[in-house]
Amino acid sequence: MLDSEIYIKQLREDLYDLQDRVDKTLADEILNSTEIDGIYALLHKMKITAEDVGYGLVTQVSSLACGILQRSKDADESCLRAVKAHIDALAIIAEHDLEGDGGLLGHEMVCQLEGLAKAVSA
């Protein structure tokens, strides 16, 4: 099992990778399905790993982002921007090392992101 310090370091590295992938994909005129699949795979890995080390908020936010990509047969720019908002939220979680469910801040964050995910999926 990873300890908290090692996990947060890995999470931050994965987030840099994710942010770079999303930014490059958004910069392309045509969204690359292979790159989107890679974004999904990294988010899914984050979700599973976070669950194992007690970072429930990371699990929830990663799961919401994965759900957006799963529900979108052809991810468009709005879908990818919504995923980017989730990745930005994950960066805040990592920056502040919010373990568990993140308390009140975590709850508020998840409520806002759920609303965004529903809006994009509608």
SSE blueprint and pairings:
Layout: H1 4-27, H2 33-53, H3 56-71, H4 77-95, H5 103-121
What does this entry look like structurally?
Helix 1 packs antiparallel against helix 4 (77-95) and helix 4 packs antiparallel against helix 5 (103-121). Helix content is 81%, strand content 0%. The mean pLDDT is 90. It has helices at residues 4-27, 33-53, 56-71, 77-95, 103-121. The chain has 122 residues and is an all-alpha fold. It contains five helices and no strands.
Oligomer status: single chain
- The value of Rg in angstroms is 14 Å
What are the low-pLDDT stretches, counting only 5+ consecutive residues below 50? Answer: none
Distance, first to last CA: 39 Å
**Strand residue percentage:** under 5%
Count up the helices.
Answer: 5
Roughly what percent helix? over 70%
Order of helices and strands: HHHHH
Major sheet summary line: none
